[in-house]
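User: Show me an example of a complex going from sequences to structure tokens.

Assistant: Sure. Here are the input components:
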Amino acid sequence: MTATETVLGAPAERREGREKVTGTARYAAEYDSADRAHAWPVPATVARGRVIAVDAAAALALPGVLAVLTHENAPRLGDPDDPVLAVLQNPRVPHRGWFVALVVAETLEAARAGAGAVRVTYETEGADVTLTASHPEAYVPDSANGGFPAVTEKGDPDGAFASSAARLDVGYTVPPLHNHPMEPHAGTARWEGDRLTVYSSSQGTSAVRAELARLFGLPEDRITVRSEHVGGGFGSKGTPRPEVVLAAMAARETGRPVTLALPRRYLPAVVGHRAPTLHRLRLGADADGRLTSLTHEVTTYTSRVKEFVEQAAVPARVMYAAPTMRTLHRVAALDVPTPSWMRAPGECPGMYALESAMDELAVEVGVDPVELRIRNEPETEPESGKPFSSRSLVECLRDGARRFGWERRDPRPRSGEEGPLLIGTGVASATYPVLVGPGVASARALPGGDFLVRVNATDIGTGARTVLAQIAADALGAPLDAVRVEIADSDIGFGSVAGGSSGTASWGSAVHEACARLSGMLAGRSEPLPEEGLVAEADTSGKADAESPYARHAFGAHFAEVAVDTVSGEVRVTRLLGVFAAGRILNARTARSQFIGGMTMGLGMALTEDSTMDPAFGDFTQSDLASYHVPAHADVVAPEAYWVEEADDHLNPMGSKGIGEIGIVGTAAAVGNAVHHATGIRFRELPLTPDRVLTGLLEHGHPAGMLGV
Amino acid sequence: MDSRHDRAPDSRTPEPERSQTTLRVNGKPHTLMVDHRRVLLDLLREDLGLTGAKKGCDHGQCGACTVLVDGRRMNGCLLLAVALDGSEITTVEGLAGDGEDLHPLQQAFLDRDAFQCGYCTPGQICSAAGVLAEAAAGHPSHVTDPAAPSGEPVALGREEIRERMSGNLCRCGAYPRIVDAVEDVIP
């Protein structure tokens, strides 16, 4: 048996598990020292305007308060790449919740009291925070997030639609959604002369270091950023965030190490969120359900700070064999917090809409929804014409249908009644692209027989440390426990972000190359190793991230069973099953946890997660965990995740696709489609909360609680 | 505030706003002068260096700060430390008994991969310890059969575990594995 067979793919335990269950794993806010101070930000209380005065006297008079930073006295910063990081640089208030001051104090209590005592006077201006499908300022941007063209068109989708046997023209609405990782964004900063050390909750230390270098006018080698443990991110820590800039600023101003851990309720305004998306889907098909025309148009918002366009019409370019197609994004810049990445940006809301529409089409033409998707399987990527490196959507659908018992399903809507409950099942497809970034790694053979691998990865809960050790052991032909892995330190060298489901592919490619090189060096060597060992390095720039002639995507199929309570309007998901095709699965244990984690977040998107932009105050009404309902234990009954192994030589040395995001992608549509099957009612706005469902039941002539009586 | 506060860089909260408080934490007594505003969570993290209990929301909404106070699970962020004088506190760092390497729940969480990012994990584990004690003591939950005999130990099925653990949020979605882990240690 080779090391490959025993190591890669094996369900290895998380390397940092013991620290996490004993409470010794340290997160960014937990680097204490005798002289550490705490900071507390002051968020703007107007939706648009300027700060005309800050009265810090009362705050400064409080015991323990060390400093109050405002745009008037804060250090001038260089220009960041991301304008959301230009904090306390001018009096402008681009949205409510934008930080207008920072209090630094001896203790958390003093900092909080100080922030409460700062008096800010504003000159307010009229604000527009309400997105509508016909917003007069909506425009077609040059590109959407990820650099995708905002518009694509193939053939004559309007003409084909007009002459199609079956036509569907529907709209869907996805509200703003919040990442809310369990660890609020935090940074601890310390200056020693002109050297800056930062402990950050970021998903990638290299990007944080680069921004801090620009902002503070320092060469990058004077800055060290570490993220040893990160309490989740889901995209909101994927780009540097204001807390790390403010912590560094406060530390420089006070000459003390400073920690800034953002209060939970401040997160929605400053760490990015999934922007709301208004979808219009037009599907034309022949009588057998074969698509003749597919149009997916998305309207969303961005802030006035920068343009971020949720690329929700992009997955339609990948999914189905429609001979004519149009995908289009429109965006309006409003006085709202700046949206950003949230788990599967684009795919997640886009596939909710597309897969809901496919279900509507299946009902319309009387074709089983699994079969409808199989009938529309493309030969090559519809938009680009590129061949797929591998595509196992059909296998996922078939395997999932078999495991779920889909063949027993009565296709008639509202055919399952159990007392006051309506039971239904639904299916949806999922897709997520294969992304990969460049980076460096080193592998060192030590005289005792152990190996030390260094790569600037970040483990935000994915099990990165563990899977990278597996990749290294595999490439070295060494036992797993002979490999030590050091990660999450910008001093190691460039590492890409733990985002876009790209981490393992990116860092793993560099680790694999360094280890393979070291293996070669060791193979031709007979003399003992020097004391410091033997080291091999790798830099995958231009290789790992080279353009591929193949369309590379992961696919999946989601199946859901729901019970809709006609008394309360509550939807319970009683079964949730996903089958995924993501190349080679490198750690069966942590992969399953990630798939199920994604599906669980999708369950929240379907049923409970709802955010409302208050039109008068320009604020998210549901800004904390009491009002923004992420799934709790009781909501998650028995999700199941499986995978179809793919052998794909066009990916990376490990043959893996990313797995961090695809689990969320099809969940909401599968649940929504199941609710339609249960009730016969098509709800086209998320989430499916009891008020909406009960209202729908009443409007459709079903007196609450009376069905099945 | 008033004029009695000096503005020296090392100024701390003045005496009248602090009180001497003694807590036993993980079996060891600690006597501290505690700012009246300080909650148990911040006392553990800032004064004692016990950062196992996490701050997820600071408002009793997420459960990441769950610790045992006199044997009962509590949100450390909602308890003013000065009000706990004389209490016995157990945190994730002190959960394993003398001579025990890991508490059985900690081992079960490892065995079941019952976490990802680990931030909610100490709270989940302490909460689970509380659940086991509450069920053994006959405390019913929302899903306990109303016909169950009062005061008798409640059998912990998966639905009971889910219900009782619902105050501990996990954004990574490790819930099913957490339930597996708790099931593993049910006596």
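The lines above are the inputs; the final block is the predicted structure for all two components together. Helices of chain B lie at 40-47, 104-112, 121-136, 158-164, 175-184.
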